[in-house]
Amino acid sequence: MDGVAALDEPLKKILGGTTAKVLAEHLDLHTVGDLLHHYPRRYAERGELTRLADLPLDEHVTVVAQVADARVLKFNGGRGQRLEVTLTDGSGRLQLVFFGKGIHKPHKDLLPGRRAMFAGKVSLFNRKLQLAHPEYELLDRDADSDTGAGAINAFANQLLPIYPACQQMASWKLSKAVDAVLPSAQDAVDPLPESLREGRGLVPLTEALLKIHRPGSKADIADARARLKWDEAFVLQVALARRRLAETQLPAVPRKLVKGGILDAFDAKLPFTLTDGQRKVSKEIFDDLATEHPMHRLLQGEVGSGKAQPLDALVLTPHGFRPMGEMAVGTEVVVPSGELAVVDGVFPQGEREVWRLVLSDGSAVECDDEHLWIVGARDAGERVLTTRELRADLLDGDGRPKWSIPPATPVDLEGGGERPLDPYELGKAVGGGGDPEDRVPEAYRNAPLKDRLAVVQGLMDAGGAPAGGAAVFYEAAGPLADDLAWLVRSLGGHATVMPLRHGPHRVYVALPRLSPPFRERAGGDAEPCESGRGFRRAIRSIEYVGRKPVQCISVAHPRHAYVTDHFTVTHNTMVALRAMLGVVDSGAQTAMLAPTEVLAQQHHRSITEMMGELAEGGMLGGADHGTKVVLLTGSMGVAARRQALLDLVTGEAGIVIGTHALIEDKVRFHDLGLVIVDEQHRFGVEQRDALRGKGKQPPHLLVMTATPIPRTVAMTVFGDLETSVLDQLPAGRSPIASHVVPAKDKPHFLARTWERVREEVEAGHQAYVVCPRIGDDEDEAPKGAKKGAGTKGAATKASSPEDVAEKRPPLAVLDVAEQLTKGPLEGLRVAVLHGRMAPDDKDDVMRRFGAGELDVLVATTVIEVGVNVPNATVMVIMDADRFGVSQLHQLRGRVGRGAAPGLCLLVSEMPEASPARARLAAVAGTLDGFELSRIDLEQRREGDVLGQAQSGVRSSLRMLTVIDDEEVIAAAREEATALVTADPELTGCPELRTTLSALLDDERERYLDKG
């Protein structure tokens, strides 16, 4: 314990009050141990020059460079003078400036050819980088004396530690402070078990601390870094392993699957099958829910639920085709095997982008991007693919169609209409009549198989002839050609309609062997079909149609398939909702926490639509074993809120979807069994904890995020959660082009931005404009803004252009909307959306925007997640530098969701060389969410993984970088899990326990407990 005491010594005792105060206030360093773990950021060799070309604007830097020239200039009519010194390093030049009486010493020291270490804040003056009044330390002063060539060489090759510094304490001063405490490194407690250290070939901790601060060689630095990274990774993973172990000891009520309950009823009416990925993840979740300890699972990936067709698409019933919009629960439909099944669920899906599959015979069928098709390929068996997957992989390498759709089994139909003529005679009469208005009456089309075949034979005998093993009808008006093709397909055949130059159409016909196309003509055998049952049709192309109202139907049949337009076989997938229903079956309640009201309302709407009468438990017309699904948000009316609270406390509502309003004290549950947190990165730990605390025993927890998380981050930031990945993320979305708009440097770029918005609107599309602030009377300062930011005084006193940009208040929705409607977007239909609007108003705006009644939506980040308007193609983000990388990526994901390509314009007033602009350039440079999550972490560092301060100066990770050290983290996790499993109390590792106690102070211990 003496070692810990030595490292706990306050810096004030060793360094004196003044220095200790600066270190505490500006670098959060209080004890000897803090300073020993304040490692150099990099090392400069005295002979080495730093790349001046790479200096980041507006950051405090330390550089080693050579003086190129120095001159004193007069200003103010000779009354004032300044010293300008130019530094060079071969990659660039940097100007130093000193004013007034402060010029004398540097004028004497900084002679051309001299080398020194300089520290200061990089600013921009006259478009050139400069340091104003930097601190400096001459590096070649000793070289002037006659100490001999050996001493000069030793001096030149020494590695200079460059410490993370601040304006009040330059790196070389920190270096002197470290010299004063370095002897205490001998007392450091080594947390790594000796067997692990030796097995991994790591140096002892004392040696690592000496080598990191005062290396004799680059090999010393590598040894020290390897050891210190292991310390951080291992101690962190031990803390998380103990956390996971403690969770498994907590009691929880097992929520086991119940047969014949609401989940089975829901699955039976699902209009689609679960994908393999969804089945696997569902099993992981249900296995966890069935245990006597709380589930702690992170679910990564988007859970889509499309699979719809337009309301004017056709569905085959025993009486002929009926529009999708007329389908109702109980309607009988034909399934591909020829059997009949009833529709047992109808799921309206609002308006969606619709696509048209064009088949090899010229027929076409419409659907949304997620719709499922049973398809076959020459080199593969049958598969079920979405429209989106087919679009992405439509043709073989030789340019031929890759996929084909199987035929439906021909069935008898009975439309109920009268058929006074013999069907064959009717066919002959219509086929030989030559009247452009001639058609096959509906009663003869919706007729038994033998009658439909007789009509076809009559038509072909009257106007057709054999053609190479098949048959051709030479001249038919458009309507009759369509009727003939329809009849042939209804018999499992293949019909292609070819328009002729002079008006009529030619129809090429092939029928199965048992259905000859002619009765009287010779050569009537058609080409035999490949399956004996009907001909496959290849998918030739997939075309964009536009927005249409759509819906899903579910069919009570094991294959969940039905027959749609032109006798095409189609097929009609949910993870979190199924987990909720499983918990409701077990007698408990589920709460879903959404980050915004817009998203909560959307979840509520889609869940109730998909559940249908199962979401109307206790209501007239509701299912017997249904439940109530309630919405709870902060701005609900008093009566609706009171009813929702009552439904929760009585247990009437099995599912509640809400915002932070769920966390309030007055919200009580009957028996909370599962908490689902949507978009985890938007919630603080306290909020998660407050909701979990509402269960009689700890409820199970499922955290969902659609934001990609690198594996290393999942192992650290979410290290106490088991991870499930739904890797079928939406692929094949339209491309999104992203560009940075430098509004201050190039104002004409901003003008062009609004021209682009106009062009997209004129092309029938819509646009979002996002601002950081609302801008009404409650002008709240943005999170993280400096106090006083935004006052005119602050802006005028700002010392550099980036300060001006920083200190101007962030742009506001209400102001920007007004400027746009009176200026560049005058005449367009512009509306605003923000968090302080009444829920009905928000809903109304989103409905109108979704329905295409608005052109431009000026909004805050309430549209960041869950909002889906595929017709919106432009996203303009004002003051984009005020948003984080993952937020920008989420916002950009609102466009490019339809057929037309998306455009994201990141507007910023920050100067080109600033870190903020570099961040925006990185976002514009890639659409890969995993790559951006890496950039995001690199930008803000890891923060305090165990604590809440995501951007604090001090972090429990000083040497380890979550992004780059994946191997170390994975190995440390393995070692930590094994150690904790064998020795949960760490009785055999007293040094590790001591280190853990020091790391897990009260606040972090509480953080881990909340999880």
From TrEMBL:
<dbReference type="Pfam" id="PF19833">
    <property type="entry name" value="RecG_dom3_C"/>
</dbReference>
<keyword id="KW-0227">DNA damage</keyword>
<dbReference type="InterPro" id="IPR012340">
    <property type="entry name" value="NA-bd_OB-fold"/>
</dbReference>
<dbReference type="InterPro" id="IPR045562">
    <property type="entry name" value="RecG_dom3_C"/>
</dbReference>
<dbReference type="InterPro" id="IPR047112">
    <property type="entry name" value="RecG/Mfd"/>
</dbReference>
<keyword id="KW-0067">ATP-binding</keyword>
<dbReference type="InterPro" id="IPR036844">
    <property type="entry name" value="Hint_dom_sf"/>
</dbReference>
<dbReference type="Pfam" id="PF01336">
    <property type="entry name" value="tRNA_anti-codon"/>
</dbReference>
<dbReference type="Pfam" id="PF00271">
    <property type="entry name" value="Helicase_C"/>
</dbReference>
<keyword id="KW-0234">DNA repair</keyword>
<protein>
    <submittedName>
        <fullName>DEAD/DEAH box helicase</fullName>
    </submittedName>
</protein>
<dbReference type="GO" id="GO:0006281">
    <property type="term" value="P:DNA repair"/>
</dbReference>
<dbReference type="Pfam" id="PF00270">
    <property type="entry name" value="DEAD"/>
</dbReference>
<feature type="region of interest" description="Disordered">
    <location>
        <begin position="774"/>
        <end position="809"/>
    </location>
</feature>
<dbReference type="InterPro" id="IPR011545">
    <property type="entry name" value="DEAD/DEAH_box_helicase_dom"/>
</dbReference>
<dbReference type="InterPro" id="IPR027417">
    <property type="entry name" value="P-loop_NTPase"/>
</dbReference>
<dbReference type="GO" id="GO:0016787">
    <property type="term" value="F:hydrolase activity"/>
</dbReference>
<keyword id="KW-0347">Helicase</keyword>
<keyword id="KW-0238">DNA-binding</keyword>
<dbReference type="GO" id="GO:0003677">
    <property type="term" value="F:DNA binding"/>
</dbReference>
<keyword id="KW-0547">Nucleotide-binding</keyword>
<feature type="domain" description="Helicase C-terminal">
    <location>
        <begin position="777"/>
        <end position="938"/>
    </location>
</feature>
<keyword id="KW-0378">Hydrolase</keyword>
<dbReference type="InterPro" id="IPR004365">
    <property type="entry name" value="NA-bd_OB_tRNA"/>
</dbReference>
<dbReference type="GO" id="GO:0003678">
    <property type="term" value="F:DNA helicase activity"/>
</dbReference>
<dbReference type="InterPro" id="IPR001650">
    <property type="entry name" value="Helicase_C-like"/>
</dbReference>
<feature type="domain" description="Helicase ATP-binding">
    <location>
        <begin position="553"/>
        <end position="726"/>
    </location>
</feature>
<dbReference type="InterPro" id="IPR027434">
    <property type="entry name" value="Homing_endonucl"/>
</dbReference>
<dbReference type="GO" id="GO:0005524">
    <property type="term" value="F:ATP binding"/>
</dbReference>
<dbReference type="InterPro" id="IPR014001">
    <property type="entry name" value="Helicase_ATP-bd"/>
</dbReference>
